[in-house]
Design a protein that fits this description.
Elements (H helix, E strand, L loop, with lengths): L3 H8 L5 E3 L6 E5 L2 E5 L1 H15 L7 H8 L3 H13 L3 E4 L5 E4 L8 H9 L24 H16 L14 H5 L2 H8 L3
Antiparallel strand pairs: 1-2, 2-3, 4-5
Helix pairs in contact: 1-6, 2-4, 2-5, 3-4, 5-6
């Protein structure tokens, strides 16, 4: 069983987010240990949080990329994966973009992270092929790491996207909207 202190720290994990230099990972701090999410998941969470902030609106990848200063090409791949996962719906062409596929209160951060981080093992021995660690047959750490990873995801499973919704500061959102999206919002064409 994980110590109660670790569980309490994991409960506050979302409150302690910082960016790590240029490697574009979020680092979740608890004590001196860290858990990292890939830049791909970071961008996905940012986009989803923004969509949750204005759930009735359709956003373009250009808008989100500009607002969060991230690569449009990378964000396009993120949106494709989010659509494949059933988190967003997309529409191509004029007036197109992407929006939440379900209410933000029905999407947990855990299910998003689980989907997007599935290809990345915490440590080598967690890989599908088992990795090449020579300690594997007698390792006492693997089960502890598995428990910690489960606790991390379980905490994120208790956190909905609605709780993390982000609305752009006044003036910023309007400044980044394209003339086309402003027309869509006002209903004129």
């Amino acid at each position: 069983m994980l110590p109660h202190l670790l569980i309490r720290v994991l409960n506050s994990v979302l409150l302690m987010r910082i960016m790590i230099g240029n490697n574009q990972h979020w680092q979740y701090l608890f004590g001196s240990a860290t858990m990292r999410l890939t830049a791909f998941t970071d961008f996905a969470l940012r986009a989803l949080m923004r969509l949750a902030g204005e759930p009735d609106r359709t956003f373009t990848t250009d808008e989100i990329a500009r607002e969060f200063a991230i690569s449009r090409n990378h964000l396009t791949k993120v949106v494709r994966e989010l659509a494949d996962g059933g988190f967003v719906t997309t529409q191509r062409g004029a007036g197109g973009g992407f929006r939440l596929a379900r209410p933000a209160g029905k999407i947990t951060i855990g299910e998003v992270v689980r989907r997007l981080e599935a290809r990345h093992a915490i440590v080598e021995c967690f890989r599908a092929d088992g990795g090449g660690c020579v300690l594997t047959p007698r390792c006492r750490l693997k089960s502890k790491l598995a428990q910690a990873a489960r606790a991390f995801i379980e905490e994120l499973d208790r956190t909905t996207l609605a709780e993390c919704a982000y609305t752009a500061p006044r003036g910023r959102s309007a400044a980044i909207r394209s003339p086309m999206s402003a027309q869509r919002l006002s209903g004129s064409r």
